[in-house]
Amino acid sequence: MNWNAMQAIVRKDLKVVFQNKGVSIPLIVAPVVILVAFPAIVFFAGPMLGGMAATDSGSSILGMAAGLPGLAGYDGAEMMVVYLLVYMMAGLYLLLPTIVAVGFAADSFAGEKERKTLEALLYTPTTDWELLLGKLLSAWLPALGVAWGGFLLYTVMANLAAWPVMGRLFFPTTMWVILAVWVAPAVAGLGVGAMVLISSRARTYQEAYQLGGMVAVLIVGLLVLQVSGVMVFSAWLVALLGLLFWAIDAALLWFGRRGFRRSKLATQM
Amino acid sequence: MNSDIAFVTDGLTRHFGELVAVDHLTLEVQAGEVFGFLGHNGAGKTTTVRLLNGVLDPTSGTARVLGLAPMEQGPALRRRTGVLTETPSLDERLTGRENLEIYAALYGVPRREIAARVKELMEVFQLDDRAEEKAGDYSKGMKQRLALARALIHRPELLFLDEPTSGLDPVAARLVHDMITHLSHDEDRTVFLCTHNLDEAQKLCDRVAVLEHGKLVALGTPAELASKIGRSQRLELQVARGDEETVLRLLAEAPGVSAHRENGTIVAAGAAWAAIPGLVTSLASAGVHIYRVAPQEASLEDTYFALQSEKEEMS
């Protein structure tokens, strides 16, 4: 395996994408805004949460929250804060590596075709597998960076936002650690794996990006199930979800390796 | 495979659906030669380069390039070949230096040598003072020179150049021509030159092949090809002004010859070398005052167009 060549592909792709402000800024700024804005809302709403708990809608949320395994021992405003910052945010957090993975991976082959740089890359002495793996890593690493960087940022923001109500550090929970360390890389892998395969067949970045929306829909579905209370994230459930995503990643990689041929790409130039 | 042979193809064919892009190409190129590959757009030149580098799989036929099978041993082969693609194919958001550094790593140039090689090529191609600028800000000629530098970054034994001087100004084109001559004569590298530019092919190539709709229609040295269509394709005559009409009439009567006026001279085309003395004698016998007779050796351009018209007549 030629790791130097793959490293060069990653370096090249990251430089090219980060030079394109139209692509890189939304991909980096959006996660930061979400991870800062949501805790900020909770922070400013903190003094009202105690009163909200006494209202009809507040009590229905608390009723739902009371059944959650991680909320035993909390009451009133504390339960509301933990419910919002730990459970409501979990699905949204998974959407962030997905968005970044889809955005970067859409650019992989389709972007090269659009910029007419693919041909030179195909003439390099990389194997088909190294070329595919280099492209997968080019999108997976930034998604992983956003997932883990976002987790650290959110850890700080969630504790700051909850401090007036909780008066102590409560985040990250076990479920969130599993979510960040085990599930987020798998979700990013899912986005990247699907998108690189789509991108190798699409002619333009936009075409690939639009098709890649389907991957985001899957994660949005999880978010809806979580928020509506149909499926509630627990440490065990997210660990299982992670396993499922890793299995899909492995399948995508297997199919990708079997089906990816530079000669197919060459016919599209 | 003999080490004196750069590559050999046998019945190499590539279809794209109904289209036959390369049609039973059988060719042998010697190591160290500059080999010209001529043909109009869509003749199959670029497809041939892709087939020879293992980037595209053939529909049928075989090729051995530097002793390797392109599809089965593609990575090992591409480590030893360099390709200048028809469009420069540069990452325009990266600087000139970054473009070379990244491709040096992709071609497996040892890390400690990369900086020195990039610097050397930047100097050779007169890009050193613009090395830190984005390639997208370069002129067309600079982009082409940068792409050529990239093709040479790993010191390939066999270089494929697809229209290397297309769109270049004469100074930049001269630089590229000098580089090709230097690579072939001084460094003993094989150059496979796909070009439309017939003067360029005549000047640089040891042998040329003409490709037409994927088929090889002619192969040889430029002189050999010229001799195939008759050594005297053009005959320039300068005669007394009053005799011009007589000359045009008499030449038109000669078999296979056509004549016209061109910048105060009469130009006859299609006269075979052996027929010229007879033609001149018949003109003198008719009382024509002849001041100058100049048979012109057929150029590669004449040859190329003769082959084209031969094809048209046949079809």
How does this model look, in words?
The complex is a heterodimer of chains A (269) and B (315). With 269 residues, chain A is mostly helical. Chain A has eleven helices and no strands. The mean pLDDT of chain A is 84. Chain B is of the alpha/beta class and 315 residues long. Chain B contains eleven helices and 13 strands. In chain B, helix 6 links the parallel strand 6 (158-162) and strand 7 (190-195). In chain B, helix 3 crosses helix 4. The mean pLDDT of chain B is 89. The chains are: A mainly alpha (269), B alpha/beta (315). Chain A binds chain B through residues 2, 4-5, 7-9, 11-12, 15-16, 19-20, 115-127, 261-263, 266-267, and chain B through 16, 50, 53, 55-57, 71, 74-79, 81, 83, 85, 87, 89-94, 98, 102-103, 105-108, 111, 147, 150.
Radius of gyration of chain A: 21 Å
List unreliable stretches of 5+ residues of chain A.
none
Number of helices of chain B: 11
Q: Which oligomeric state applies?
A: heterodimer
Which class of secondary structure composition applies to the elements of chain B?
alpha/beta
Mean pLDDT of chain A: 84
Strand percentage of chain B lies at 25-35%
Terminal residue distance of chain B: 39 Å
Number of strands of chain B: 13
Number of helices of chain A: 11
| Coarse shape of chain A | elongated
Give the H and E element order of chain A.
HHHHHHHHHHH
User: How far apart are the termini of chain A?
Assistant: 27 Å
Overall mean confidence score, pLDDT of chain B? 89
Largest sheet of chain A: none
Return residue spans of chain B where pLDDT drops below 50 for at least 5 consecutive residues.
none
Tell me the strand order in the biggest sheet of chain B.
5-6-7-3-8-9
Which percent range fits the helix content of chain B? 25-40%
The gyration radius over C-alpha positions of chain B equals 24 Å
What amount of the residues of chain A lies in strands? Answer: under 5%
Characterize the largest beta sheet of chain B: strand count, sense, and whether it forms a barrel. Answer: 6 strands, mixed
